[in-house]
Every structure is written in C-alpha cells, then in structure tokens.
Amino acid sequence: MRESTTYDEVYHLLVSLCERQEELSTAAHLRVMEAFNTFMEATYATPMVGPTVPGPLAELLQQSRVGLRELSDRAPDLPRAVMYTHAEEQLRAAVGELG
C-alpha cells in the first residue's frame, strides 16, 4: 500500500472483502460488514464506485487494516478516529475467524 492511504482505497478494499462472503465464515463476514458500516459512518461520503480489488483474502484484510489504522492516525477528530479503530478491530477479529 502507498505511503498515504486514501478513503477511496480503503472503501474499495472493504467492498472487495464484502463481496467475497463465500470465502469467509458467517462470523467473519458479519465482522467485515460491521467494519464497512462503521467506515461509512465515519467518512460521511460515498467514494466513487470502482472495480473490486483482486488478491488473496488474507492480504485484502491486512491491507484494509493498515489503511484504517492510517486513517485513524490522520482523523480530524477523536470520534472519527475511534470509528476507524473500531472498524480495524472488526477486521482483526475477522482474521481470527478464518480457518
């Protein structure tokens, strides 16, 4: 991932994860969806629709977590930073749900 992750990059990673539900357990998919919903609440805007991001599931989860941590570190206010951190924690838990 580049030095500075954008909202759009994290959005596309999360959409890609949401669309790969057949590769996730039900619990992991619910955590990914919770992370996506939290991310959307924190950003207040819908990024441009684009192609999903290909790659191994574990790699997409890791890239998404890194991106969310970066966004949390740069968040303009504490509530948004907490929301990004919560989304990242949901993805961490989803990784734990992978068999």
Structure description:
- The protein is mainly α and 99 residues long.
- The chain has helices at residues 7-18, 26-43, 57-74, 78-97.
- Helix 1 runs antiparallel to helix 3 and helix 3 (57-74) packs antiparallel against helix 4.
Summarize the helix and strand pattern as letters. HHHH
- Taking pLDDT < 50 over at least 5 consecutive residues as the criterion, the unreliable ranges are none
Give the mean pLDDT. 86
Number of strands: 0
In percent, how much strand structure appears in the residues? Answer: under 5%
**Residue share in helices?**
55-70%
Task: Work out the radius of gyration.
Answer: 12 Å
What's the total helix number?
Answer: 4
General shape: globular
State the end-to-end CA separation: 25 Å
Backbone structural class: mainly alpha
The largest β sheet comes out as:
none
